[in-house]
Amino acid sequence: MALELVDLVKAFPGADAAHPAVDRVSLTIERGSFVSLIGSSGCGKTTTLRMIAGLEFPDRGRILHEGRDVTLVPTSERGMRMMFQDYALFPHMTVGENVAFGLRLRRQRGRHTAGEIDRLVDEQLERVHLPGLRGRKPAELSGGQRQRVALARALITDPEVLLFDEPLGALDAGLRRAMQFELKRLHAELGKTFVYVTHDQHEALAMSDRIAVMHAGRVLQYATPEDIYFTPRTRYVARFVGSANLLDGVLVDADRRVGRVRLPNGSVIEGSAPEDAPAGTRVAAVIRADRIEIRPAGSTDAVRGTVQERLFLGTHDEFLVRLDGLDADVSVHRPTGTGGAISVGDPVGLAWQPENVRVLSE
Amino acid sequence: MQRPVEYGRQGWLRVSALVVLGFLYVPILTMVVFSFNENPVIGLPLRGPTLDWYRAFIDNEDVLESIVNGAMVAAGCVCLGVGFGLPAAIALDRHEFPGKAFFRRVVLLPIVLPGVITGVALLNFLVLVSIPLSLWTIVLGVGTALICITVTEVFARLQQLGRSQEEAAENLGATPAEVFFRVTLPNISTALWGSALITYAIAFDELAVTYLLTGRDNTLPMALWSMLRREATPEINAIATTVFAASAVVLVAGLWLSRGRGEQVQS
């Protein structure tokens, strides 16, 4: 395994000591994998990344790299390269000088001839699709180009681990997508460990081998994108990753990880649970909008409601349905052009498979 | 849509701008003109252009010596001001230490205090510890007061710069010295040049502290002052014109220098 975080704790001076920025975070990151840390701002993801990089030091806990304890090793000695949100290019140097920076430092002295450095710089610029720009200054580049220069500068020293701090945050949507594909391609090509921080769950789902969802300094769930999406362990994860409906209720019974939830209107929903909680526990039934079937109301429907809103979203229609006897709206996605016509105000019936329902107590 | 105000078209603005500029530069122009006037009394009528006053200036060894003295004092002040101001600015921006907020204010105090007060205080102190007055004591008195120029200029630049470039350099394997000389220093060089120029200019024509702290040697403002007290001849105009021309050259060079580098620094 490449990286191991063991019980990391980090509180910033002046902040509330009872709620550290990073609170007992433990993660194992396999060599060569692409791991994303996601969460809303202030959840501790960037601080965790900066501790891996050696730009911050934890108050407690350890960081192991290939079995070696690097917790207090300075960033310059770690062999990990960080990509900064603002790219952090050196404005007084040309693109070529920026990329060559890591090779021209004292620790590299004598390892490369000037000609070799030239060749390596060209090679890296080619790799990030910026050939011929080595004479430019960063100020003359677009945001996407600066991003690529920063990437080339990081890659030229052949690090084992690459760390990304919301690197695509400043790019527009189209460029963002192009860079996502680019990073995926680079990851596959280089076989290096990527640790990637983002607040964009779609980006994390699309790119990662594993995702750690963080909230209030803690890792709530660390799993594959599929697991995070389909079997969230907590309500926060369910809500943060994709559009899930949360219906609050009380657990009737739970057996072998199948729970039954009674909603305030009396109807009972069955679903899978991460653990068997005692009956009477306050829980939520979680159902993804795209796993709910919607149809005009009929006598056989177990769950009924009224359409409050209909939004046309291109690939699908989104319906907001107010459930009968409940003070809760449920969002339903239906692929465009399927099923009968449903308009605002229509009574409808909702149906879903029990395996698409999660029963979560946390 | 509302049209943007075109300030250039507003007559009163142009007039007031011209009045202010005139107030600043007409006296200087007068001084330049009278420095070539043959009439030994400063005033009209103008009589045939002459370089006599410039010749008198070049032959006046006291004045020449005072210029050299002043230049040396100013250079010493720049060394002191930049040499202590740069580390102080870095400490204020990059490090936490006890009494930091207090230090930030205290470092600005000398420029707020009237020079006479600083001068009297230093004079008392120097007499007390029996340090003989000389050009060095001027450097000590004026230079320490001007440290705050470099501190404020460089501190502002460092704040604006942020940490990520330095972190990136360190992350790429740079030692602290490499980070400083290859990343930090190039980014703040214009602020350093700027504070050096301002420090030099202020130190060169400082009078109050200098008057109190000097020994036998004079600087230019003191030499001019004592000449004026005896008799105002057009030679003073010639000296002042020369200093003005030299300052203008330095100023233009400084602006040109900082603009050239400023383009590189903006990202």
Counted by DSSP, the helix tally of chain A is 8
What oligomeric state do the depicted chains represent? heterodimer
Going across the major beta sheet of chain A, what is the strand order? 6-7-8-3-9-10
> Span from first to last CA of chain A?
30 Å
Shape of chain A: elongated
State which percent range the strand residues of chain B make up: under 5%
- Share in helix of chain B: over 70%
Tell me the count of domains of chain A: 2
Number of domains of chain B: 1
CATH superfamily annotation of chain B: MetI-like
Question: Which labels suit this protein?
Answer:
heterodimer, A: 362 residues, alpha+beta, OB fold (Dihydrolipoamide Acetyltransferase, E2P), 6-stranded mixed beta sheet, 5-stranded antiparallel beta sheet, 8 helices, B: 267 residues, mainly alpha, 13 helices, 0% strand
Describe it for me?
The complex is a heterodimer of chains A (362) and B (267). Chain A is α+β, with helices and mostly antiparallel strands and 362 residues long. Chain A folds into two domains: 3-230, P-loop containing nucleotide triphosphate hydrolases (Rossmann fold), CATH 3.40.50; 244-360, OB fold (Dihydrolipoamide Acetyltransferase, E2P) (Beta Barrel), CATH 2.40.50. Chain A has helices at residues 45-53, 95-100, 114-127, 143-155, 173-190, 201-207, 225-230, 235-240; strands spanning 3-10, 22-29, 34-38, 60-65, 68-69, 80-83, 161-165, 193-198, 210-215, 218-223, 244-255, 258-262, 268-272, 282-288, 293-296, 303-312, 316-323, 329-335, 347-351, 357-360. In chain A, helix 3 (114-127) packs across helix 4. Chain B is an all-alpha fold and 267 residues long. Chain B has a single domain, classed as MetI-like (MetI-like fold). Chain B is 76% helix and 0% strand. In chain B, helix 3 (61-94) packs parallel to helix 7, helix 3 (61-94) runs parallel beside helix 8 and helix 3 runs antiparallel to helix 10 (176-204). The longest helix of chain B has 34 residues, at 61-94. The model of chain B is unreliable at 260-267 (pLDDT under 50). At the A-B interface, strand 6 of A face helix 9, helix 10 and helix 13 of B.
